[in-house]
Write a structure and sequence with these properties.
CATH architecture: 3-Layer(aba) Sandwich
Order of helices and strands: HEEEEEHHEHEHHEHHEHHHEE
Radius of gyration: 19 Å
Number of strands: 11
Helix content: 25-40%
Shape: globular
Distance between the termini: 56 Å
Largest sheet: 5 strands, parallel
Strand content: 15-25%
Number of helices: 11
Structural class: alpha/beta
Length: about 300
């Protein structure tokens, strides 16, 4: 028993989960200043609950600061090492090109656009030079997540379990047999109503960024069913694109890019119906880098130039 407990902790990181906390502005976020190893992957959260290194209040001179905000696709979860997240891979690609940059990752599982807005309301934009909003197909009609699950759902722990065995049982084994007490919170709005509300939240984000003269880019990520086995256009995507065009917000469209790739290639980018493998995260980072460094990529009517 003691040997098994030790193996679960040493090999899998069980008993030492990433901890969350309720938050009035954004529903919940990861507890600040924590580091752990899960499934062999390094996970760090800084003082602002970002999956990033500790942050200086002011960017260093000549450092281009990018703030990325999103959901579990951007975060990566325990299945992705810190170095394999979209944000870290993008940062490394820019650094290798000889440009000084830091890419911040403010994200959490099941965050909707309303949660992103809440985060920015609470913490601001950290004097960033560019704001990238990662929004997936599911986010278009995703309700704003509340703190109801925090401390009750084993996927949203607020403190460490006494035993690794306890976490293995409650978080991973019982849900497989539908014996977990975790329950989905039913939506209160119809999809089209939630979509309109989410556009309202997005408009609030864009207005705030405009007041700061902060360029904004939307990174649109697809679900598995959007591209496999046959690509198709998600229901609310055309309306979403028209909204962005009216707001003059550039769109980096992963869905469109992956729709033209061989299915076998795209399969390797997903680890489930929504989340990405390290290869998928790298493919997104590649697409971001290619677009952001194009001479004719315009933001607020001017080329984006890294300092």
């Amino acid at each position: 028993m003691f040997l098994t407990e030790a193996v679960l902790r040493w090999k899998w990181g069980l008993g030492n989960p990433v901890l969350t906390q309720a938050d009035a502005e954004m529903g919940y976020r990861f507890q600040p200043n924590q580091t752990t190893t899960r499934l062999g992957n390094q996970i760090h959260y800084n003082q602002y609950s970002q999956r990033s290194d500790p942050l200086l209040s002011q960017p260093q001179e000549q450092v281009f600061r990018v703030l990325m905000v999103g959901d579990s696709v951007l975060n990566g979860g325990s299945a992705i090492d810190q170095s394999e997240t979209i944000s870290e891979q993008l940062e490394q690609k820019i650094l290798k090109n000889g440009q000084t940059v830091e890419v911040l990752n403010a994200s959490a599982g099941s965050w909707g656009i309303g949660n992103q807005w809440g985060y920015l309301q609470k913490f601001g934009t950290f004097k960033s030079d560019l704001l990238i909003l990662q929004i997936g197909t599911h986010d278009l009609t995703q309700p704003t997540s509340t703190s109801a699950r925090v401390g009750h759902d084993p996927n949203y722990p607020t403190e460490k379990p006494l035993l690794a065995w306890q976490e293995l049982l409650l978080r991973y084994l019982l849900p497989r047999f539908h014996l977990s007490q975790s329950q989905e919170i039913p939506p209160t709005l119809k999809p089209e109503q939630q979509f309109e509300q989410n556009l309202d939240y997005l408009e609030q984000i864009l207005q705030g960024a405009k007041q700061e003269n902060l360029p904004v880019v939307v990174l649109y990520t697809p679900n598995w069913v959007d591209v496999l086995p046959t690509p198709h256009t998600p229901t609310y995507k055309p309306q979403f694109q028209r909204f962005l065009e009216a707001q003059q917000v550039p769109l980096i469209d992963v869905h469109s890019a992956w729709s033209s790739l061989p299915p076998e290639t795209v399969k390797g980018y997903f680890r489930d119906s929504v989340h990405l493998t390290p290869e998928g995260s790298e493919a997104v980072a590649d697409l971001l880098y290619e677009n952001l460094t194009l001479p004719d990529f315009l933001i607020l009517g001017s080329p984006l130039i890294f300092k």
